């Protein structure tokens, strides 16, 4: 029984044949009747911004801003930016931002992007080892529809947070929507991970350790051998052990060595969080019928 | 040249119209809003037809566009171009019947409604559009790993919301590969 599916107003199957219906035909005709002018400015502001960005020098930009109608509030826009935290330049029709200091205050990045007329919120957050250098979250809004953002590192595949590893973000010149990016970096000692990874994944503290269904005593001993501390989260399995719920207020439960572990998350460097129940369960509520992954 | 463009767009339109219509209907409270979203999504595809990827990827690309159009719509930046009496009639008909309701479903719906917008969208893409992680990554423009993590968290929050509401539900309905 797929409860969520029942929440849907219609399913695609119910719409079979609609593509050739009167509504669809009328829409197709209306759209294709329009002159196909690719990349047409969706809002008047865009054309202006484009003009500003294509000009060569800040002085020229400032002048353009003064002549343009309704542009009194548009700040002068630079075509490059450099600070100790990040550099932004134009290369081959793209804005290329190189983040040199991933530990900087997030505001510093925002300021840099703003200086060249881009609205980009960049957060570089501490994550567990298997997620270092990974893009955690990315989104666009405003008139960014259909535009592409690139993220990566130089050198390619390096670990963000290590010296010499530069995070790179590329956006098309003329980009005038909003973008936000959350990127994972190495955590400093004691710093809590903002995105917990599976603790027995490759590169994590309990790499390769079988967790699911073992006792707390066994897993804690294994963790201790690796110099890792364990904390606990009691979980309440749903009916049929499909899924579970937690009470986050219950942070220091009395967990016995004979309790059972169903999953382990990396909490902060040197600390893993074990998801436990008092009773043994016939099925892992975290992974359901799927095989709990190891490594 | 223009003919090429038109026939290519028409092919994409035929192939994806019902999916995009479904996407919009499931997320909009009124037929007028759904019509706006569908119309604007395809108007963008028409302008950017060269950017539309071939084959099955076209549907994912359009979901990504529709998602942005919907977000703008919710921010009050609605556009009402390309609407027609035919389209409005077509869609109004689809809103005439309410989806199946029961006490339990009502509770699930309320718990779902309370989730953060991003969580709802992720879970919907799995449960309603039937997308897998790689496809969602394409729609959202992020890595598969990021989808995995965000989906895991979204499900956790949903399970919690359901437990708070006193509802037990098969968590696996939200699974994706």
Walk me through the structure.
The complex is a heterodimer of chains A (295) and B (177). Chain A is of the alpha+beta class and 295 residues long. Helices cover 19% and strands 27% of the residues of chain A. A five-stranded antiparallel β-sheet of chain A has the order 1-2-3-7-6, covered by helices on one side. Chain A has a five-stranded mixed β-sheet with strand order 9-12-13-10-11, with helices on one face. In chain A, strand 12 and strand 13 form a beta hairpin. Chain A is flat. Chain A starts with a helix and ends in an 18-residue tail after the last strand. Chain B is mostly helical. The relative contact order of chain B is 0.11.
Summarize the structure.
Chain A is of the alpha+beta class and 295 residues long. Chain A has helices spanning 3-7, 22-32, 44-54, 58-67, 106-115, 216-225, and strands at 81-82, 86-91, 94-99, 119-126, 135-141, 150-154, 166-172, 178-185, 214-215, 229-237, 244-246, 260-268, 271-277. Helices cover 19% and strands 27% of the residues of chain A.
**Percentage beta strand of chain B:** under 5%
Secondary structure class of chain B reads mainly alpha
Helix fraction bin of chain B = 55-70%
> What is the chain-wise order of helices and strands of chain A?
HHHHEEEHEEEEEEHEEEE
Summed up, the helix count of chain B is: 8
Class by SSE composition of chain A: alpha+beta
Q: In terms of per-residue confidence, which ranges of chain A show pLDDT below 50 for 5 or more consecutive residues?
A: 38-74
Percent of residues of chain A in beta strands?
25-35%
Please provide the ordered H/E string of secondary-structure elements of chain B: HHHHHHHH
Amino- and carboxy-terminal Cα gap of chain B: 41 Å
Structural shape of chain A? flat
Instruction: Tell me the major beta sheet of chain B.
Output: none
Helix content of chain A: 10-25%
Q: How many alpha or pi helices of chain A?
A: 6
Low-confidence stretches of chain B: 170-177
Please give the number of β-strands of chain B: 0
**Mean pLDDT over the full residue set of chain A:** 77
Please report the total strand number of chain A as a whole number: 13
Largest sheet of chain A: 5 strands, antiparallel
Mass-distribution shape of chain B:
globular
